[in-house]
Amino acid sequence: MIFRETALSGAFVIDLERHTDARGFFARSFCRDEFAAHGLVTAWAQSNVSFNARRGTVRGMHWQVEPEVEVKLVRCTAGALYDVVVDLRPDSPSLGRFVGAELSAHNRRMLYVPAGFAHGFVTLSDETEVFYEMSHPHAPDAARGFRFDDPRIEIDWPEPCAMISDRDGGYPDLPDDLSQLLAGTGGAAS
């Protein structure tokens, strides 16, 4: 695997290191030792699949608060999406900044979402499927979110929103003081 840390410390884009021959290729998509060598989580508590029928489907922006903060490892297994993370760590120099990466079935790229980050995506094609691992099971009482088009963050979505859930569409903008988001006092509960 090829690990590239993004502009947000702790968030990684991970590409497969392919070993090819006449049959196709072989690559590892997870190795406990390699993840540990980069200081990343190596144990997953829950795996999820998100199927999205339409291009322009937005899911996010989501995170969980203490003590159920979560790490995610996100991969697109069909179609394509633009995956976004926003740093919500109160002591981070990049607090409130975002990075995005195109994940697709073709590029087989993954995005490692550290604890303390909000996560969301927009699909770039119909019939997009997303597979992701979570370090902590979903905890509805700890789930939070903010509006995907929050003017404070100014995420440059490459696809307009064509579909969004009532919950995600109803999230508020982030508060002026981002320092308490992970403690659960900011953002909207699910």
Describe the structure in brief.
The chain is mainly beta and 190 residues long. It has a single domain, classed as Jelly Rolls (Sandwich).
Task: Chart the SSEs and their pairings.
Layout: E1 2-5, E2 12-15, E3 19-21, E4 24-26, H1 32-37, E5 46-52, E6 57-64, E7 72-78, E8 80-87, E9 98-104, E10 110-113, E11 117-123, E12 128-134, E13 143-145, E14 163-164, H2 166-169, E15 188-189
Parallel strand pairs: 6-14
Antiparallel strand pairs: 1-2, 2-10, 3-4, 5-12, 6-11, 6-13, 7-10, 7-12, 8-9, 8-11, 13-15
Walkthrough of the structure:
5% of the residues lie in helices and 40% in strands. The chain is mostly beta strands and 190 residues long. The protein has one domain (2-18, 26-189): Sandwich (Jelly Rolls). The strands form three sheets. Strands 6, 8, 9, 11, 13, 14 and 15 form a seven-stranded mixed beta sheet that branches. Strands 1-2-10-7-12-5 form a six-stranded antiparallel beta sheet, with no helix packed on it. A two-stranded antiparallel sheet has the order 3-4. The protein is globular, with a radius of gyration of 16 Å.
